[in-house]
User: Fold these one by one.
Assistant:
Number 1:
Amino acid sequence: MLTNTDATLYHRRYNPVTRLDEWGCTYIPAIWWYEAEQSSVTTEGRKTADTSTVRIPDITVLVKKDDYLVKGQCSVQMKTAKDLAGTEHFKVSAANYNRYGGNPHIRVTGGA
């Protein structure tokens, strides 16, 4: 699989002791990152949104909805999503594990 960058995945974990969410991160050394603009026409007019699609060749990485994916290696100690300001990132809306075929990968989509 072709790759064009690396990324850092931030995932939320619940801490039962503090009863708060904590964010952990995983560095992914090789991914394919693609950005596009989508638009739709509603009763309120035309709406546009930037969307990102990422393909991760390492299918052992655990990606789920509401995680955050940051382009490049990121060392931010995240407490809230606002901590990622100034980075190129998106919130994961779907993660599809394509485990079969000649090119197994994880297809991750999301938007700002």
Number 2:
Amino acid sequence: MTASERSLQLVSVAAEAAAEKLADDIIAYDVSEQLVITDAFLLCSASNDRQVRAIVDEIEDKLRIEADAKPVRREGEREGRWVLLDYIDIVVHVQHEEERTFYALERLWKDCPSIELPESVTKVAAQRAGGAAR
């Protein structure tokens, strides 16, 4: 079993929204083989609490407008260090970079297939990496 078309659409919209707010290390995994509760995880991070909240707000807005999707559950918003948005088909994790490093969710899900993200998302990441190298 692989992630549904709906899940892939939600991942794409959420990833683009995160990229618009300059989220770091945006990656997605198809976890449908390992989990019954969701098809995909989208992970991204930010350097401060305010940016975490901005990314979360943008993801929620874009998914509501472009995909008619609302989270059924939201966790961690008050602290702004790790916000989880559960859309049933996908789960979005927006983490402060310190939490991202400490919990290393990528290590837990590395055996799952990654989901290709839109070119607009990878282009933003490449531009930011190029700017950081200067």
Number 3:
Amino acid sequence: MKLYIAPYAPNPRRVMMFLAEKGVSDIEIVTLNLQEGEHRTDAFKKKSPLSQIPTLELDDGRTLTESRAICSYIEALRPEPNLMGRDAFERAFVEMWDRRMELLFSMPLMMWVRHGNPVLAAVERDQNAEVASYNQGQAMRMAKWLDSELATRPWVAGERFTIADITACCGVDFAKMNRWRPGDDLPNLKRWREAFAARAAGKVAA
């Protein structure tokens, strides 16, 4: 199998973190240059019609895009260590938290960076300061809420590490481009990020 990624992009990093936590090392990694438009070539669009990364190419030529879908496929192939839930309720519970982290926390952080950081102007061609400001506010509100949630448990979805932690961390780390990271005003979120750094997923380069 081949996994197509790009440096610094949070969604490919989400899959790379997932693979690291699983201990999967037998997938070939192919790096694309987004600023040079390598994901928009006709050849790559045959693998990923919407020019999306990450893209997982199977040995038989079939492909998967969407980071969550790729992680679900890897989880089915390599069920241990379990990162998505062991029974029906836990799977739904982890997915609930993963969706919250993706849509309500990481996505606003990413949109704040994509629309507010001039370094990304070549990728986000229609940067909008109002979009950046709105998403910054949403992300900071969610950061405070998540900090209060993490006062009651070590990890996002409970007592053990799951994909929900990976999804949250991808957004948090991408926001470093805008010089934001959990500080002493968010002690539980800061403690969580420090604990994340000690894990295999935490060793994946940003």
